[in-house]
């Protein structure tokens, strides 16, 4: 039985050694979940390769630049329309101002132009112009005034078109 006693003591010492090993391992492993969390890498920023980044930037540029050019051309087109409208309004203002000045001059002369007054005075003085002739003269005088007005309007329109042409040529030259 002596051999059994030594086997039991050997088994008891092995058990105690195993218990101490388990307790040491348990102490070492008990902090394992915290260590996993601490050692776990967390990506706060995504790191990209430089070629990928440049490719993304170029795709953004390719997408945005045409839209910007379209917006700029639309804005320029509206500006040119407004400039043309302004020029036409200025030309119309000049035309109306010229007509107003012409009417003022005519009214200061007595409401009629000089040739018509002279014809009227000759008719009343007895040179023999009949009423139909005076009506014909009046109609011709009105026609002359309409034609003069049309000439003035066309001259102002031609000046306006010259200004627009100069502006467009200056814009092309830039």
Describe this structure as you would to a colleague.
It is a single chain. The protein has 174 residues and is an all-alpha fold. Helices cover 86% and strands 0% of the residues. The chain contains five helices and no strands. The chain has helices at residues 2-29, 32-39, 50-108, 114-124, 131-173. The N and C termini lie far apart (118 Å). Residues 72-99 form a coiled coil. Residues 119-132 have a biased composition (Polar residues). Residues 100-138 are annotated as: Disordered. This is DASH complex subunit SPC19.
Question: How are the elements arranged and paired?
Answer:
Layout: H1 2-29, H2 32-39, H3 50-108, H4 114-124, H5 131-173
Helix pairs in contact: 3-5, 4-5
- Shape, per Cα inertia axes: rod-shaped
Number of helices, counting only DSSP H or I runs of 4 residues or more: 5
Q: Rg, please? A: 53 Å
Structural class: mainly alpha
Distance between the termini: 118 Å
Strand content: under 5%
Q: What's the helix-strand series?
A: HHHHH
Main β-sheet: number of strands, strand sense, barrel status? none
Please tally the β strands and state the result. 0
Task: Kindly report the average pLDDT value.
Answer: 81
Helix content: over 70%
Give start-end ranges of low-pLDDT stretches. 113-127
Region (Disordered): 100-138
Biased composition (Polar residues): 119-132
InterPro entries: DASH_Spc19
Coiled coil: 72-99
